[in-house]
Amino acid sequence: MSIKPFVPQLVYIEPRALEYPLGAMLKDKFENMGLEIRQTTSHNQVRNIPGKNDFQKYRNAKSTLVVGVRKTLKFDTSKPSAEYAIPLATGCMGHCQYCYLQTTMGSKPYIRTYVNTDEIFDSAQKYMEERAPEHTRFEAACTSDIVGIDHLTHSLKKAIEFFGKSDYGKLRFVTKYHHVDHLLDADHQGKTRFRFSINADYVIKNFEHGTSALEDRIGAAAKVAQAGYPLGFIVAPIYLHEGWKEGYENMFRLLDKTLPSEARDDITFELIQHRFTKPAKRVIQKNYPMTKLELNEEARKYKWGKYGIGKYVYQNEEQEDIKATLSANIEQYFPEAKIEYFT
């Protein structure tokens, strides 16, 4: 059965958010939906998330939405997928046990949506002007699954149309949700690459709770292709498990069966192997004490990362096997597609 679009159980609104049309509209919408709404001076003051213990508080935070104003209009870089991350939201309602947001969001796993979208777009315009006439790519899903909340806010739809009108801007984002119908009529002008995160059934069923099923994601990708969007897929995290080669081939086979022919001449794939850091391992085991996720440091290769935090990746020969296997699948089913990177 398909999962329903996200509805928060609890909403916090920063007072300044009501000075913006989107903030006022969301307050009215959530009141009409009968949701519990609380005021907060700042998202940092959101401390009294209900729950008897950390486990319950974490789950309740994941269904809490903070409507606020983005104060920092300096964008982070977003390599290798784009030049910059455009901040429309942070946090995610999904329960992907391996997710790196568990450590970057730390003690604040609630979802935030920013209502000062015009200020955010003005900032994006300045970044584009700095790099013109080169194109500048903006990633909208670095710190959230933006599609997962956009049926409520339509901020992403506004961003798609903003970049559609731009001379040198391109937008990218990725999602694990199939709730895309409101985005199909957006005037994207071919400047937004709509990407879906896909994985072997084993990974989705065991580690991606609260997200759309693979069939639903791929069905949504077919709709998106028919709406003329350039399409992409992130296969991540590529996770070694019993029967993994068959599992990933089944995924590509389903994709091949479902995607319309008009989508095939401009598809990108991004391949990302499973990795974890020591801090992430601690948080994952605390939030998901029954996880089946393999986090054995001895079985992995240590790779130095930026900011001095290294990560545990697969051994070299395993990485080569992953890369060769998935590249062969892509070559077989999508010979025109481009593999953007394997990491």
Concise structural overview:
The chain has 11 helices and 17 strands. The chain is an alpha/beta fold.
What does it look like?
The chain has 343 residues and is α/β, with parallel strands linked by helices. It has one domain: Alpha-Beta Horseshoe (pyruvate-formate lyase- activating enzyme), CATH 3.80.30. It is 35% helix and 21% strand. The protein contains eleven helices and 17 strands. The chain has an eight-stranded mixed sheet, covered by helices on one side. A five-stranded mixed sheet has the order 2-1-3-8-6, covered by helices on one side. The model has no long low-confidence stretch (mean pLDDT 94).
* Number of helical stretches of at least 4 residues: 11
Q: How are the strands of the largest sheet arranged?
A: 4-5-9-10-11-13-14-17
Can you give the mean pLDDT?
A: 94
CATH class: Alpha Beta
Secondary-structure element string: EHEHEEEEEHEHEHHEEHEHEHEHEEHE
Note the gap between the termini. Answer: 33 Å
Shape-level CATH architecture: Alpha-Beta Horseshoe
How much of the polypeptide forms β-strand, as a percent range?
Answer: 15-25%
Relevant terms:
single chain, 5-stranded mixed beta sheet, 35% helix, 21% strand, globular, 8-stranded mixed beta sheet, 11 helices, 343 residues, pyruvate-formate lyase- activating enzyme, 17 strands, alpha/beta
